[in-house]
Design a protein that fits this description.
Length: 566
């Protein structure tokens, strides 16, 4: 059962598990995951030990962007079930001690939301100003290819959509819009939800007059992107939201703002508890490092030190004020083990465990995306018909229209398509990975017969069991949640090392990022080899480390010592 008797910052010692409902578990055989499917599998989350379930959108939606285009914020889409099912899920999760955080998608609505239908009905509609309408488009491009403006024949103007043309942007300058959003949020809190993951919330404050960006048409990722991200009024809006929504709800909730383009300095402001904006943000720096000048599908090699430099700079930057969210992937990113680890079958499990060890012992709140705890991988896509995601499909359409062949695009799509993370959760080695009895809406990857929950839960040495240890560690060792962070060996090409300290207890995380063994500098192990207790190891080679100072490839070891009598 849930206790409400928690410190305000209870989420520092929590682990969040993200469910992408479409791909998690299908209870009715239509090939699409649903709420009853989630209820049936809550035991999996409880076994893992997670504290919070973040549910990607299940609201009523035309599903142009898999539910991130919402036409009714206060109802459940029939493909996922009913409001009663959602109430049942919240109650069932709470009964297992798991809080439920909903996705809050209020930078935009669906173009089928009644607010937009009314807004587009005439130039004099009372809701016209709830969205952005202009006679002439500016040069902003959409995140999903093409212009960010869509002409509307009936009223002869264009409306702004930073994402798909079926996702018109709400005008947050209009106080009526803000009040409508806050009322909806209060309604959900009263229904029992425990917080919100706020979709692209730092894009809600557009610059006055919507001036052109300095880059060419269709390129939102250059200067014009920085024009829409982190506008000064975002801070005001978030503070107002705290006052209008959360102030009357003293129970334990969590707010996390998804913020593409946020830097460390801004993130410290957004997450400074004294400013009362959000508890933590999702930043994008480490997941943008392998994008070239041509955008996310223009993949460039990424050496570990660059990844480490970025994440450790965030660690240090938010060490005094603010708080990190820790994630390797989610429903928008390729699978971590394929991207940052090694998905060759010989190394897959070890690298999955190594990545998890680093993430879960850093300072911040870790997020586990469904299937990461099994070491699920990217998908060997090879035909245009393999893709479902609007971003990938629009990209293929735009590039092939400009003369590229599908073959030219395949490497980028394989590496970065969001569909990599959206394949069905691999429950068993049986039909459709045990996800559905029907035809899955997106194919099950070929390795499901080997990589699945059935073969891991309760099995010593599995990726799942390693995650379970890491989650428990956070709950049991205050140093994981509360400790200071000290980056170590920052010039080493393959060793990721850092120390944590709190209240007389120290942890040392040492991880070999690659297949080659790594010799740990002797001075780093001084004082650890005697007193150290091995807390976790991903490949079982801690003895070799303590004896010879060598970490085998893709091994991560966490050592603990008591630095003074407590
Ligand atoms: C971020 C979400 O995570 C992504 O899936 C979605 O396409 C965009 N925001 C637009 O809502």
């Amino acid at each position: 059962m849930l206790t409400q008797d928690l410190p305000r910052d209870w989420w520092k010692s929590a682990v969040v598990y993200q469910i992408y409902p479409r791909s998690f578990a299908d209870s009715d055989g239509d090939g699409i995951g649903d709420l009853r499917g989630i209820i049936d599998h809550l035991g999996h989350l409880e076994a893992l030990g997670v504290d919070v379930l973040w549910l990607s959108p299940v609201y009523r939606s035309p599903q142009d962007d898999n539910g991130y285009d919402i036409s009714d914020y206060q109802d459940v889409d029939p493909i996922f079930g009913t409001l009663a099912d959602l109430d049942a899920l919240i109650a069932a999760a709470h009964a297992r001690g798991i809080r439920v955080v909903m996705d809050l998608v209020v930078n935009h609505t669906s173009d089928e939301h009644p607010w937009f239908v009314e807004s587009r009905s005439s130039r004099t509609s009372p809701r016209r100003d709830w969205y952005y309408w202009r006679d002439e488009p500016n040069n902003w491009g959409s995140f999903f290819s093409g212009s960010a403006w869509e002409p509307d024949e009936a009223t002869g103007q264009h409306y702004l959509h930073l994402f798909s043309r079926k996702q018109p942007d709400l005008n947050w300058e209009n106080p009526e819009v803000r009040e409508a959003v806050y009322a909806m949020m209060r309604w959900w809190l009263e229904r029992g939800v425990d917080g919100f993951r706020m979709d692209v919330i730092n894009l809600i404050d557009k610059p006055g007059g919507l001036p052109d960006g300095r880059v060419g048409p269709g390129d939102l990722w250059g200067d014009s992107f920085s024009m829409v991200a982190n506008g000064p009024r975002v801070h005001d809006h978030l503070r107002e939201m705290q006052d209008r929504v959360f102030a009357d709800h003293p129970h334990a909730f969590l707010t996390v703002g998804e913020m593409p383009g946020v830097g460390v300095g801004q993130a410290a402001l957004f997450t400074d508890p004294a400013r009362r904006e959000v508890d933590m943000v999702f930043q994008f720096e480490h997941v943008d490092l392998d994008s070239g000048p041509g955008g996310k599908f223009d993949v460039v090699p990424l050496a570990m030190p660059r990844l480490r430099e970025s994440l450790m700079r965030w660690q240090v930057g938010l060490a005094e004020v603010g708080w990190n969210s820790l994630y390797w992937d989610n429903h928008d990113q390729p699978r971590a083990v394929s991207r940052f680890g090694d998905d060759d079958e010989v190394w897959r499990e070890r690298s999955a465990k190594t990545l998890a060890t680093v993430l879960h012992t850093l300072r911040g709140t870790p997020y586990v995306y469904q299937g990461d705890e099994l070491g699920m991988t990217n998908v060997p896509f090879d035909s245009p018909s393999d893709f479902r995601d609007i971003e990938s499909l629009n990209y293929v359409r735009e590039q092939t229209a400009a003369g590229a062949s599908f073959g030219d695009l395949l490497a980028g799509l394989r590496a970065k398509s969001r569909d990599n993370a959206r394949t069905p959760m691999q429950w068993t080695g049986g039909l459709h990975a045990g996800f559905t009895t029907g035809e899955p809406w997106i194919p099950v990857p070929p390795n499901a017969s080997r990589v699945n929950a059935e073969s891991q839960v309760g099995v010593r040495g599995s990726v799942f069991e390693h995650y379970r240890v890491l989650v428990a560690l956070r709950h049991e060792e205050p140093v994981v949640a509360r400790g200071s962070i000290t980056p170590l060996a920052m010039d080493h090409p393959d060793l990721w090392a850092f120390g944590r300290a709190h209240d007389g207890v120290e942890l040392l995380t040492l991880a070999a990022f690659g297949r080659e063994p790594v010799t740990v500098p002797a001075e780093m192990l001084q004082g650890w080899t005697d007193a150290a207790a091995v807390v976790t190891t991903s490949a079982g080679a801690a003895t070799s480390l303590l004896g010879s100072g060598v970490l085998p490839g893709w091994e991560a070891v966490v050592l603990r010592r008591v630095s003074r009598a407590v």
